[in-house]
Amino acid sequence: MMTRKKRLQLLAEMCLKHGQAEVARRIGKSDSAVSQILSGAYQANPDGILQRVEEVFGTTLVACPVLGSILLGVCAEKRKLPFAATNPRRVQLYAACKDCKERGVL
């Protein structure tokens, strides 16, 4: 996992590369939230948003007990899937994801 400082650097780099509006759209937050985080004016704890930045733009690998070594972004998408008793892989993921340390601050 990246440090808060590294996540802020990644956010700034991605805003330069893709534009602030595009980055905000891709992480599911507003332009103003991204702007406030970058300027240090964000009033709430930004850790959840910064984790999402790492999930979307980062290259952090995590050890999934079901899928093996995967990107944090793939982990985030898989853990959001609803339970599906008809799909054995989804049953395994649901059980593994609910107690996983990679759930982070979200």
TrEMBL record:
Leader peptide range in chain numbering: none
Q: Which domain of life, per UniProt?
A: Bacteria
Q: Which InterPro entries match?
A: Cro/C1-type_HTH, Lambda_DNA-bd_dom_sf
GO molecular function per UniProt: DNA binding
Domain HTH cro/C1-type, first and last residues per copy? 11-64
Q: Pfam families of this UniProt entry?
A: HTH_3 (PF01381)
The name on file for this protein is: HTH cro/C1-type domain-containing protein
Q: What is the source species?
A: Pelobacter propionicus (strain DSM 2379 / NBRC 103807 / OttBd1)
